[in-house]
Design brief:
This protein is of the alpha/beta class. The chain is built from 10 helices and 12 strands. The strands form 3 sheets. An 8-stranded mixed β-sheet has the order 1-2-5-6-7-8-9-12. Strands 3-4 form a two-stranded antiparallel ribbon. Bound molecules: iron/sulfur cluster.
Length: about 290
């Protein structure tokens, strides 16, 4: 089974990512984010496990990847979830990949990544996309119950990383109305922590993630039903909120981001014309 696979093989209508590959040491994820999309298509998602013979297979397979390719670690699990503290397979992958001519993009929401800053800084071409959804500790804990770090610990990790490598922040997803009141505060805090770009998108409904969201926030169940299932649009298997609401929220993030002098991009919204940089942060890397 290939470990390094082409990203977005279904070519989603709204995906504006450059061609790239995905790699993950783990199947499933322990962060248990209520809004997670990957849980709808990966079996036993909340029982994460390391991939069999991962490092040995990676050493063999990476030789076949064309030079200068972008490899993202990871698109459907967090490479720095709790398993990484003991298995250290994401770190092992970095040790292998650093000898190859590739462009690396790490996607995580875990401060554990700061452990590897020395190794990450050895890559000639690297970007980190670090996710932060709220600065409100209670809200963050509620929407990402398996992530054992506070928003302040996340910002601290971003500061450590951004001193040595380019960091984009994923302020993502924007869940109306849970975290959309924090736009200004979050963008400014991320800027102070050294990020160069803000990437954002609105929450999209899949039946399983809506069930989790409704269970945790019963007071918003009617609103989300109305916005997503009655007035929203079905695009590529996801229920989107109404276009006018999406545009309003995304434009607000864009306005604050640009006024802070940062690059901006939206992800899978169909608003590519609003982006000032690659939608995945990879244009920040040194060429
Ligand atoms: S970190 Fe990503 S993959 Fe893991 S549960 Fe959260 S959204 Fe899903």
């Amino acid at each position: 089974m290939p470990l390094i696979t082409p990203f977005d093989p279904w070519k989603s209508k709204y995906c504006t990512c450059p061609a790239k590959y995905s790699l993950s040491a783990y199947t499933g994820c322990s962060h248990d984010c209520l809004y997670c999309y990957a849980s709808s298509y990966i079996r036993n998602f909340s029982h994460p496990r390391p991939k069999k013979d991962f490092l040995k297979r990676l050493s063999n397979q990476v030789k076949n990847i064309p030079k200068n390719s972008i490899i993202t670690i990871a698109n459907s699990s967090d490479p720095y979830q709790e398993l990484e503290s003991s298995f250290r397979l994401s770190r092992g992958a970095l040790e292998i990949l650093k000898d190859f001519d590739i462009r690396l993009n790490i996607v995580t929401k875990s401060p554990l990544i700061a452990r590897d800053i020395g190794l990450l800084a050895e890559f000639k071409n690297i970007t980190v996309s670090f996710t932060l959804t709220s600065l409100d500790e209670k809200l963050a804990k509620k929407i990402e119950p398996g992530l054992p770090y506070s928003p302040q610990e996340k910002l601290k990790a971003v500061s450590v990383l951004s001193k040595k490598i380019p960091v984009a922040a994923r302020f993502d997803p924007l869940i109306y109305p849970l975290n959309t009141g924090e736009i200004e505060k979050i963008v400014k805090a991320l800027k102070r922590s050294g990020v160069k770009q803000i990437i954002t998108s609105t929450y999209k409904v899949k039946p399983d993630n809506l069930k989790r969201m409704n269970r945790a926030f019963p007071e918003y169940a009617r609103l989300w039903k109305s916005l997503y299932l009655n007035k929203g649009e079905r695009i590529g298997g996801y229920d989107y909120p109404p276009l006018a609401l999406r545009l309003k929220i995304i434009e607000k993030v864009r306005k604050v981001t640009l006024s802070e002098g940062l690059e901006f991009s939206s992800c899978r919204e169909g608003f590519g014309e609003l982006n000032t940089a690659n939608c995945d942060g990879t244009s920040l890397s040194k060429l």
